[in-house]
Amino acid sequence: MANQPEIVFEPEPGERPGGAPPLVVPKPALQMAGLLILTVFGLAVAARFFGFGAFREMPTTILIERTLRFEDAPDQGITVIDAATNTVAVVLAPGSNGVLRGALRALTRSRKAAGIGQTEPFRLVRYTDGRLVMHDDATGQQVTVTSFGPTQIESFDNLFKEKPGPGPTVAPPFVPVR
Known about the structure:
Blueprint: H1 27-50, E1 62-72, E2 78-82, E3 87-92, H2 98-114, E4 122-127, E5 132-136, E6 141-144, H3 150-157
Antiparallel strand pairs: 1-2, 1-4, 2-3, 4-5, 5-6
């Protein structure tokens, strides 16, 4: 072949002569990382099986309680029925009470998975410490409503009233206990 010019590759800027040195992680650093992973895994197991470090709500006295059933209304609303008297407590308009609908959807999903129908009522409970909780005794699930804020608390508080709407609630506003 004819004399072709020789191709010379220049090193990349910042490249060391002879290539990059192999990456060496110090053995103590690997041991500490392994120990950290084992500690986190151990704490997760302890919380799951022994309750160590797990959060639990302390039981307090019930201030007021109402058993309710919820049925879909033909207009996409929700009919709330007082399970004790079997009368309509309130009809929730379509598109309103989003958090209440979401809580019911979550609780109803558990019921469907367990094969439980809509005939079992839910319990809405206001405790003396201010907590407002929707209990599903059929599945053991519950939703603590007071963690959603004042507007949502009011929509659930309305379910305690004979005539829902603005006005005083059945209990003082939620005050966290420290």
